[in-house]
Structure formats: structure tokens, C-alpha cells
Amino acid sequence: MIALWDGLRAGFWLIWTADAELIEISLRSLFVSISAVALASLLALPCAALLALERFRFRRMIIASLNALMGLPPVVVGLFVYLLLSRSGPFGVLGLLYTPWAMILAQAVILMPLIASIAHQHLRDLWAEYRDLLISLGASRGQRIRTLLWDGRRGELTACLAGFGRGIGEVGAVMIVGGNIEQATRVLTTAIALETGKGDFALALGLGFVLIFISLTVSFAVHILARTERSARW
Amino acid sequence: MVAHLPILLHGVSVHRAGHNVIGPLNLAITHPGMTAVLGPNGAGKTTLLRLLHGLERARSGHIDWPADPATLRSAQAFVFQRPVMMRRSVLENLIYPLRIKGSTRDAAKKQAQTVLKDIDMAEKSKLDATLLSIGEQQRLAVARAFIAKPGLVFLDEPCASLDGATTYQIETLLRQKRDAGVVSLLSTHDLAQARRLADWVILLHKGKLIETAPAAQFFAGPATQIGRDFLEGRLLL
Fold first, then answer.
1. Mutation target among B79, B80, B81, B86 for the A interface, most CBs of A within 10 A
2. What is the pLDDT of residues A182-222, one digit of tens each?
């Protein structure tokens, strides 16, 4: 209980004093996770729309795989991306290992199936509702996909927020490909892991509270900006 | 303007989940104006309309159209029994079909605003269409179907479960469109509505064509026993 209280105090103090290192780590955490969500969404949302709209061979297998990959172990992804980006790997020449870009890439791989799977469930229901109407109106395949993506944006937002929540709290993969290097690749989760390892539980808890605060703030901000509940039916 | 008639069905049948829903059906739809497709529940009225609009596939037989079916389909519209509202504002629901057909946003908006005034819904233009009452949604759905000036419109029980006032508004709109030369196929089991609107009647039962005749002739005295039973309100088994 005392440790929790100390953690809360430490977190409050870090925010109150606008600790430079905390701000730097927090901004890096936000940058990495938001970029990863953006990158994953670029691939996941059109993929979700296609899976909702089209009937093709192996479609069910792809959907089942995406659902299964939602629980992809981050450490394994980290290792996989590490091998790809390491000097002896196929993309080693890019020199991305131990940079925030490697962390973004690893997180995007983890988030892509999650965002695609959640978005697909929303878009599949929307397509069931819209199918006859859009065919009747003569919408082309491209117009149907664009319409689904636009009208299903609230469901997609939920998918992206779920992705952001998973991304910003992720530690295994970013630790492997980022290396937790001070002033370079240290983010909130790896900093917490480091402080816990050093036995500074108060600071680790403080950083944890900051992480939760950021996660909640982003979620609320997105909901308010997107007016998610503005036209609710009840 | 493209001619939408005649539509000739030759031995057309539709199956769903291994069951024959309609057919084999030999039918000629040749009469302009409004044709009512009548029959009890399960007669195949909706399936026939969906088939003609390309929402269902025929398992056998073929349909002869007066022109290329793809060209004709782009000048068709469908009003569903349960209105499908896009998750957009009332105005955007009207703009959408025009944008699909290639109108500029400004032109589409202007036309949509005019139509909203015509159907007395101008003050609701910014409302989320899914929040409208069912009657308002159906009025909007009918207006949306007609906004791109189709030549042939399929109406699948557009007034089912609507009150008298809303039914009157929709029927008035349908009459105006018929008078303007739009061909329409109306599926209904509401005989009173068919009497009020139809120029021609097609009676279906269990997926089979029972009879087809001018509305006045059908309502004066059907040629078949099933037709007489249907008009007299007897249960068709």
C-alpha cells in the first residue's frame, strides 16, 4: 500500500515538475505507438473492408488467422523483426535496429491483426446492412469500399484505440528491437521495466501511472473529437 | 431515354438453401405505369423483384431485356420493405446516389435540398438518418430511390407497417412519378393499395404465376379460382 502511495506521489511529482526525461520518454512512447497504429491501420483497414466485402478462396482461413494472430506473442515478433533488421538480416543495410523506427515496425506487426480483426467484425455487420442498397445504387467496388470505410469509421476508431492501447503498453518487442537506449529508444514501458529491475518501485509505479494517464487521455480525446456518443440512440 | 419494357422471363426459377422459391416462371412484363405483384406471404413477390434488379440469381431460365441489362440496371432503383438508412445525415443520404452517378458535390447538394423541401423534410436535413422514425425513413428511402431519375423502380412493400398519413404521402409521390412516366413494379399484399395504384396486376402463389391482367379487369373478376379466393380474403394454402 505504501509502495502504491509512493508511486502515486512520484508520478504526480514527475508530472508537476515537468520532468524533462519523463516528457521525452512520454513523447517518444506516443510517437512510436501512434505511428505504429497509423502504419498498421493503413494495411489493416482496407484489408478488413476487402474481407467484409469480397468472397474469395482462403477468405475464411485469412479471417481465422487474423483472429488467431490477435494474440501474437510480442517477444516473438520482436525477435522476428530483430532478425530482419539485424546487420546480417535482409534489411540490415537500412540501419534501423535500435531506432524508434524499428520499434514502430515491430508494434505495427503486432497491431495489424488486432486492428484488422476488430475492424472486420464492424465492417462485416455494416456490409450486411448496406449490401443490397449499395448494389442497388450501382456503387462500384471502389465506391463500396470507400463507403464502408467512411460509414464504419466509429468501429474503425474503436479498433485503432484497441491497437493504441496494446501498442503503448507493449514492452517485449520494443525492448528487443529498440534496446531501451537512454535518449534514443527508451519508452515508458521499457523505463518501467528498467526501474523495476533497479528496485526503484516508486519511480516504476509513477511511470506506470503516467502511462495509464496518457492512455486514458488519448482515448477520451479521440472519443470527444470523433463525437462517438453524440448521436447515440438512447 | 432507355426503354425498360418489355421484360420477358423464360422458365426462370430461383432456389434458396436448396428450396425452390419461385418458378419455373414464364412471364411478360410489358405494361407501362405501375404493375402490382400480388400474392400472400411466401408467394415469391420480393424474390421476383430482387431477381429483376440483380440482387438474386436465377438458377435456371433466362430473362430477355429490351437493352443491355447492365445499362438498364444503372437506370433502375429499389425501395426496400425495411428502409436501409446510411449512417449519415438525411441530406447526405440523398446526395450519395447522385455522387455515385457522377454528379459534382455542389450540384448533388442543390438537388438533394430541393427534394428534401418537396418531401417536407428540409428542417431535418442535418439529422442522422438512422434516428428518424420508420415512416420518415421510408419517405426518405423513396425519395432517395427516385432522386437519380430512374426509368424503372422496384417497390417492395414500401408502405408495410406505416400509418395512413405516411402511406398517403408515399402513394402521392408514387402517383406523381408514375404520371411522369416512371415504370414501377410494386410488391404488396395490401389489396386496397393495389386497387388505388396499380395499372396492371401479376398474381403469384407459392412461386408460380397464377394470372396477370389489367388491374381493372383483375379486380372486377379474376380469371382463376386462386385469384378469386385471394380477392375474397380466403386463406390460400
1. B86
2. 999 999 999 999 999 998 887 888 889 889 999 999 888 88
Distance in Å, alpha carbon of A60 to nearest chain B alpha carbon: 20
Query: pLDDT confidence of A29, banded at 50, 70, 90?
Result: very high
Give the pLDDT means over successive 10-residue stretches in chain B (237 positions). Answer: 85 92 92 94 94 94 91 92 95 96 96 95 95 93 95 94 88 92 92 95 95 96 93 81
**Residues of A (192-231) whose Cβ lies below 8 Å from B:** 231
Q: Which residues contact A207 (CB under 8 A, 6 or more apart)?
A: A11, A14, A22, A25, A188, A191, A192, A195
Q: What is the pLDDT of residue A201?
A: 82
Q: What is the ipTM of this complex?
A: 0.91
Mean pLDDT of chain A: 91
What is the tens place of the pLDDT at every residue in A147-163? 999 999 989 999 999 99
Name the residue facing A231 among B54, B74, B131 (closest C-beta): B131
B84/A132 Cβ within 8 A: yes
Distance CA B75, CA B89 (A): 24
Long-range (24+ apart) CB contacts under 8 A made by A8-12 are A8/A205, A8/A206, A8/A209, A9/A202, A9/A206, A10/A202, A10/A203, A10/A205, A10/A206, A11/A205, A11/A206, A11/A207, A11/A208, A11/A209, A11/A210, A11/A213, A12/A206, A12/A209
CA distance linking residue A31 with residue A187, whole number of Å? 10
Determine contact: A125 vs chain B, CB below 8 A: no
* C-beta pairs of B229-232 under 8 Å, 24+ apart in sequence: B230/B38, B230/B39, B230/B40, B230/B191, B230/B203, B230/B205, B231/B191
Question: Which pTM was predicted?
Answer: 0.86
B86 shares contact with chain A (CB less than 8 Å): yes
